[in-house]
Amino acid sequence: MKDCNGRDALDCLLSPRSIAIVGVSSDFNKLNGRVMKFLLEKGYNGKIFPVNPKYEEVGGHRCFAAIGDIGEAPELAVISVPAKVVPEQLEAAGKAGVRAVIVFSSGFGEMGEEGLEKERQVVEIARRHGMRLCGPNTLGVINAFEGAFATFTQYGMGSTNPGPVGFVTQSGAFGTAIAALARKRGLGLGYFANTGNETDVTFADCLGRIVEDPRITTLAGYIEGITDGPGFVSVARRAMELGKPLVVTKVGRTASGARAASSHTGALAGEDAVFDGIARQHGVIRARNEEHMLDIVDMSTTTACPAGRGVGIVTQSGGAGVLMSDRAEEVGLNVPQLSEETVARLRDILPAFGAAGNPVDVTAQFIADPSMLKESVKAVLDDPNVHVAAVWLQLMDGFVDTLTRTFRELKEETDKPFVVSWVAAPEEGLRALRELGICALRGAEPTIDAIAALVDWEEARQARLADTAAPSDPPALPAPGPGFVPTEKSVSLLHDAGVPVARVGLATTCEQAIEHAERIGWPVALKIESPDILHKTEIGGVEIGLKDAESLRAAYERITGRAAKAAPQARIDGVIVQEMGSGTVEMVIGLRRDPGFGPVVMVGMGGILIEVQKDVVFNRAPVTEAEASRMLDKLKGKVMLDGVRGAPPVDRAALCRMISAVSRFGAASADWLEELDLNPVLAGPDGVIAVDCLLISEN
Amino acid sequence: MKDCNGRDALDCLLSPRSIAIVGVSSDFNKLNGRVMKFLLEKGYNGKIFPVNPKYEEVGGHRCFAAIGDIGEAPELAVISVPAKVVPEQLEAAGKAGVRAVIVFSSGFGEMGEEGLEKERQVVEIARRHGMRLCGPNTLGVINAFEGAFATFTQYGMGSTNPGPVGFVTQSGAFGTAIAALARKRGLGLGYFANTGNETDVTFADCLGRIVEDPRITTLAGYIEGITDGPGFVSVARRAMELGKPLVVTKVGRTASGARAASSHTGALAGEDAVFDGIARQHGVIRARNEEHMLDIVDMSTTTACPAGRGVGIVTQSGGAGVLMSDRAEEVGLNVPQLSEETVARLRDILPAFGAAGNPVDVTAQFIADPSMLKESVKAVLDDPNVHVAAVWLQLMDGFVDTLTRTFRELKEETDKPFVVSWVAAPEEGLRALRELGICALRGAEPTIDAIAALVDWEEARQARLADTAAPSDPPALPAPGPGFVPTEKSVSLLHDAGVPVARVGLATTCEQAIEHAERIGWPVALKIESPDILHKTEIGGVEIGLKDAESLRAAYERITGRAAKAAPQARIDGVIVQEMGSGTVEMVIGLRRDPGFGPVVMVGMGGILIEVQKDVVFNRAPVTEAEASRMLDKLKGKVMLDGVRGAPPVDRAALCRMISAVSRFGAASADWLEELDLNPVLAGPDGVIAVDCLLISEN
């Protein structure tokens, strides 16, 4: 809801025109004195209202006994009082007309059931008064452009120049460390926001506002678990539309990490592979760790995205060139052969013992003649197969001025992007390049990794821009009732949704099974049908390739006999007769419901590959056929789809249609679907078909 | 050859008692003035003999017109003259009785054929005079303990405190950068050696001498390609015996990198996977890049090797704990649940909102009460499932003294190792911990990675110590003649070597084939036999599962017909009749000859897995059965061997026996074997058998 100035509560949180500090201390060394100290030091240009009955005045500002005494409504109130008095202070803030509150106090959801109850209470108060609530258990929010340091983070101590990076973190301590690392690199943060327990304002809420600020060109995030999936996807989409890379570190990528995360945040984290798939689906750059994230952010704030995967490498060390080539290949870039013309040009530039290939080795000679370095990089960048140059240097104490001049000229004289990889660099060298808007990273591999991340991002962005057939959410399907959905019903639902599934019939007698087989056509498979036996193969409840009535009869007896023996208590609905399919590659396709993102579609390689490597990709449902195709591209086993050992390629278009159809079914059944497993799906040169299906409904 | 003082030429290179500098400059800013400058500055305690007819005196030392004028034999001569006069200076050095020479000059092997000829010439001169030659094209050698800086590396500028690390590098520029990075961390290098073109003294020669120095506890290396495989293996073995970790970065791990490396060094690099396998086989720690290497070196110089894989994580940030748990799982460590006793103890120590699990979150409260941190780490280390603690901190400007005291006490009060991961640390904090002999790294993941590397190393070392059945080299087998070895002969050789291969017979008529089948037992396989058709399947030259004479006759006609059509020029020796094997898992076993390491044995997963992921492991032949078993453990698809989808486990002992037998065959045929492919090898619960074999001989 916007006020008469067109400002809503999130504006008041992230760009407040006035701030009340409830529970302020006049001792600026104390945590609840820090906000005041920061606001004064950082030149906050809005109004400051200290609130604490103990003081008349704090930091030269009149101090109020209660927030209601101020006489006007502060846009933002920072609450820095013990947990037990937070509710009354919130009430007071609400009554005073405050629009947004930040609650520093801990002792809420992170403390178990009792804390959760207190948390529900404070959220209720905030909602009732129409206030947005950041926290509790947060370090607060910084808008560095406006000097609005509504925070007690240690990062606030020391210089905090505003810059083009908007950073939102779910962790206070780790987020502070990342912000400090950014400062060490000379990277300016325009925003720093810690969302704490996310009882109201989420990670996506903050980023969604920050992405719109034209002073921000790059977004960075530290994530422990996404609770607001749709919000996250919206921000990702918007960032892509605006051409602003969103780079995140998300922890909890392994079972150990997820266990640690859930004990840490108390929140139910969705499966990491789901986040990973959806992030990539929407062009979010996922960094391995904080340094990797900052490398990418660093490059993106200074350097144009390369227009392709060709990297020209120029070094003063053959070995570094090899290491960069290695890494480039590993991360999907290429180190193209240079054209004859480029090589000839390089030969004229370089000393006889230099190397004019790619990587180019200018040798230590360039120290005597810096133009050799500049001209080499220019020659490489002029090569049509090169889209970005990576220049490797080491040490160079005493040559910083020369190098700075060289790189300044290089920047003026070239159009394509280049990045400097400077190992054991003198600090003043890195600073000088940053001032010129040139990206300098500290190692060969980090440089190549940052390039690859931005190239991937640009490709994802182009693919999404080209993908005009955005899938519309299909109309909702009625719930089939809770639990196991009978196979005939599942197959019928899937057929209606355009998903190719082998035809089935339920038989309660052997003769009925034979009738189904005659209708479906021999050979057929028989499978025990029971809501209590979901893993039919394990109890010998499946027989395939039955060619005639005789073999069917024998199989029928065996299957029902084994089921009765293995699961005497199970309700047996009968036996499913199923059409046999064929294909050259086994796959799995399925649907899951993620707690943060809702229905997600999964595609993976089946057969033994799923045993050896969990080779699956998730996307948020629904997906277009183009998105489905990009999912397939991310499978490690994708080479199988093209046909190996003389096998023909599978009908990829049909596979993509099927994935898209399954995903639309997932979106239509979002209200009730718990899980769908099509395993195996047989893909062949003439089409695709699921030959087993298991559908579970929540209601 | 040792002299009367018991010193050989490598001692004279790496620990010279006197150094002549041939081509010295009195201008210490010039490259050929640097050695003199360094020797004076670094307090070299041996004799210095400048040699240059231009000067009477350099740096206070009498300068000689020629090396022969000195009147005594310098142990080491550094040659810093243009390439074309290197030979005459080498002759003079030889005549003067010099034991070792370092040739800085470039313009040799790295310059193509002409340079190679010059290189052969200088090597010949050195050999003739019994001198060991380091270079040419090298930055030289440092023994920092003795101030012997026989080098012009930029690393020599600035402080170079000797320390427990011996570092050998094949790259000058990259090696200099790594040395500078080590200095930035406060890591002391006792030795720095750049081997340049390795015409005589190799990487392994240098390390082999350095490993024996008791002042050295850790070895580090930068490798572009190993030319002296046996030497490398000896050093690796010796380092393990002495309990000194050897950590290397090797570039050229991808095709792009290998291409770049071969154009850079001019040397034929062996396959990277071969190096990788052999390095792990001998306990060499392979780091991804320079920072990863230095992290491991850093930890190993201060911290005892953990006795197991259990990591206790103590942080001030839940998020960092999650990231470390993630990484621990990814690199094969575990983050064990703590005992009830430990948890109870932690609950007493921590604030209510801390986390007493593993990871432990002490929260920012520990700043007020540092004993909370110390006692938490102690509690975690006392847990029987924890073998090492990782403590994560950030920033802490202003708290360095407190933390230093805390960690000093912690070190005194615990026996198990711990490592500090300190993000955005104040420099003085890192320095203080280093002075206490406590390892502090700069990030969560680097810390976990370093721990994992040392745990892996210790395990490899223990395994090797336990592996008493070191394989002896079997007696050499006579060469079977160059090229394709006929299948009957190959199978017979392999049978004699104890390798289980399906029985075969060569038939030149259909009736003869039936006779073989009767002898071998039905069913059989038929395969075209021709030295010109090595990929038989591709031309339809294989049929399997032939159950009787009738089907064999038909298959015989088809196979010979297809071969005649597909390869009309091919010499056809007949048709091989082969016993059919059975198994549950397809594997490949083979032998290769590596240019640096000689015969190597390869094991991999077969079938479609080899198409999707190149899942193979190499070791140097011969290997023991225990080594074979460790090779299997490194396969990504190893889970297949235990039986998936209800399949029984394969006979792993038989598989290991087979691998060992193949490897001994490789060692016995080292003089002539080019390649052996057993593909597929069928492994099942009742044994293993190769059902196809291809053996190629060089002579």
From TrEMBL, chains A, B:
**SUPFAM superfamilies assigned to the protein according to its UniProt record, in alphabetical order:** Glutathione synthetase ATP-binding domain-like (SSF56059), NAD(P)-binding Rossmann-fold domains (SSF51735), Succinyl-CoA synthetase domains (SSF52210)
Pfam families on file? ATP-grasp_5, CoA_binding_2, Ligase_CoA_2, Succ_CoA_lig
The biological processes this protein is annotated with in GO are: tricarboxylic acid cycle
- Name the Gene Ontology molecular function terms of this record: acetate-CoA ligase (ADP-forming) activity; ATP binding; metal ion binding
Record's keyword annotation contains Transferase: no
What InterPro entries does the record tag this protein with? Answer: Acyl-CoA_Synth/Transferase, ATP-grasp, ATP_grasp_subdomain_1, CoA-bd, Ligase_CoA_dom, NAD(P)-bd_dom_sf, Succ_CoA_lig_flav_dom, Succinyl-CoA_synth-like
Q: Does the keyword Iron apply?
A: no
Q: Where is the ATP-grasp domain?
A: 491-527
Key words of the record: ATP-binding, Ligase, Nucleotide-binding, Tricarboxylic acid cycle
Hey, which family's this protein in? Answer: In the N-terminal section; belongs to the acetate CoA ligase alpha subunit family.
Q: Specify the protein name.
A: Succinyl-CoA synthetase subunit alpha
Q: Which organism is it from?
A: Roseovarius halotolerans
